[in-house]
Specification:
Radius of gyration: 12 Å
Order of helices and strands: EEEEEE
Helix content: under 10%
Strand content: over 45%
Structural class: mainly beta
Shape: flat
């Protein structure tokens, strides 16, 4: 399982369980994988405004 620690600019620490993190100019989104190996689909589990995020760290669990 993969988790992301997200530090916000107001000092809040969030933990988000997601398989990947993507971002564009304004939004950082966290997504989970669903489906079979042949047809992987992604669904968004959380989205944050880019200006609210100070730091993101990916944590892998075995």
């Amino acid at each position: 399982m993969t988790q992301f620690f997200v530090w916000l600019t107001d000092g809040t620490l969030l933990t988000v369980a997601a398989d990947r993190c993507r971002h564009d100019r304004r939004i950082m989104s966290f997504e989970r994988r669903s489906g079979t190996a042949c047809a992987t689909h992604w669904r968004e589990v959380s989205a944050l405004r880019w200006e609210d995020v100070q730091r993101v760290e990916r944590i892998e669990h075995a």
